[in-house]
């Protein structure tokens, strides 16, 4: 009996220590955390931070929107819910999460060709699929407990405490320019261009697979977006992010130009199919001064994009809806 009691006391003591550790880090924001380290932000963190902000407009997308779309530029209640990488399932998950937990009625969704690659597996964010939707009190807190008490969370929590680089995203989901500069001053401009170019050549577009046929997963994804829009009476806008001309060269060299055209064509049909406006901001003539490297634009150019979307100011080159495939 004494042995059992001793084991129980040790277990309870270790549980309290680990609970304090996890609450101190507050990896997913359940215990009051309101800011997040840039290096470790993921879907759960963005969802919880965004829900607390109660936005009217939500921006979804990959790192291109995450690192350049400043919600403070427009005089609107906007939350930047973009993450490092978002694949089709992630867009659906984020969209439904914000609809369930907030009263947001407008969603700006930035889509990237590379993330339609069916072989791209870069994020595992579905550890607990529906904990955010659970109305059952016991089940909800059971799910939260399981979310915190898993091996990957302990490792990430330790990294946050041990290797804090001090670069935080803001409470509106955006990475401030001064933090952005801390990242990009670690190497020269030429080195950054070369690093990202090699990443796309050797990894992201290596052994890629695209399918935009009538029964493809990507078209099913677009249909799901359409169904969500119609069922919830919300406005959705698709935007194709700008990329450097070098990125377009890589797409051509890798023989993905046909797939790239098919991807854009299917997006442009959304105006006809679902009353979703599609803006294509791809322009091979954008000056290098607006890029950090071949994949990410600076806030200055994203502000021009915001002017097009929100204020209808046509001060940059872009195509819209059916113009995209002409």
Account of the 3D structure:
Helix 4 packs parallel to helix 9 (217-232). The N and C termini lie far apart (80 Å). Strands 3-2-4-6-7-8 form a six-stranded mixed sheet. It has a two-stranded antiparallel sheet with strand order 1-5. It contains 13 helices and eight strands. By secondary structure, the chain is an alpha/beta fold. Helix 3 links the parallel strand 2 (57-60) and strand 3. The chain has a single domain, classed as SGNH hydrolase (Rossmann fold).
Which descriptors apply to this entry?
326 residues, Rossmann fold, 6-stranded mixed sheet, two-stranded antiparallel ribbon, 13 helices, 48% helix, 9% strand
What is the fold's blueprint, element by element?
Elements: H1 2-25, E1 36-37, H2 43-53, E2 57-60, H3 63-66, E3 78-80, H4 88-101, E4 106-111, H5 137-148, H6 151-162, E5 168-169, H7 177-184, H8 189-204, H9 217-232, E6 235-240, H10 245-253, H11 257-268, H12 270-274, E7 277-280, H13 299-311, E8 319-320
Parallel strand pairs: 2-3, 2-4, 4-6, 6-7
Antiparallel strand pairs: 1-5, 7-8
């Amino acid at each position: 009996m004494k042995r059992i009691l001793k084991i129980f006391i040790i277990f309870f003591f270790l549980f309290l220590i680990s609970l304090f550790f996890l609450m101190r880090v507050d990896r997913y924001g359940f215990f009051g955390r309101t800011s997040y380290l840039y290096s470790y932000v993921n879907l759960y963190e963005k969802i919880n931070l965004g829900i607390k902000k109660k936005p009217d407009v939500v921006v979804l997308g990959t790192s291109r929107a995450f690192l350049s779309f400043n919600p403070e530029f427009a005089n609107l209640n906007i939350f930047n819910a973009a993450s490092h990488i978002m694949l089709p399932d992630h867009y659906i998950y984020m969209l439904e999460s914000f609809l369930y937990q907030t009263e947001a009625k407008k969603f700006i969704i930035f889509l990237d060709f590379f993330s339609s690659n069916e072989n791209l597996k870069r994020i595992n964010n579905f550890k607990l699929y529906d904990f955010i939707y659970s109305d059952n009190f016991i089940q909800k807190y059971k799910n939260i407990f399981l979310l915190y008490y898993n091996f990957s969370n302990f490792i990430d929590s330790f990294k946050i405490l041990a290797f804090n680089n001090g670069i935080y995203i803001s409470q509106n989901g955006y990475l401030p320019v001064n933090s952005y500069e801390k990242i990009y001053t670690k190497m020269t401009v030429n080195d950054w261009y070369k690093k990202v170019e090699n990443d796309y050549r050797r990894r992201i577009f290596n052994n890629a697979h695209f399918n935009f046929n009538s029964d493809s997963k990507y078209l099913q994804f677009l249909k799901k977006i359409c169904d969500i829009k119609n069922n919830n009476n919300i406005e959705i806008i698709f935007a194709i992010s700008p990329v450097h001309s070098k990125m377009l060269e890589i797409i051509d060299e890798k023989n993905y130009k046909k797939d790239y055209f098919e991807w854009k064509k299917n997006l442009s049909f959304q105006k006809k199919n679902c009353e979703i406006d599609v803006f294509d901001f791809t322009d091979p003539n954008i000056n290098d001064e607006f890029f950090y490297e071949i994949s990410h634009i600076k806030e200055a150019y994203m502000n021009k994009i915001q002017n097009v979307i929100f204020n209808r100011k046509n001060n940059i080159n872009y195509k819209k809806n059916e113009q995209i495939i002409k």
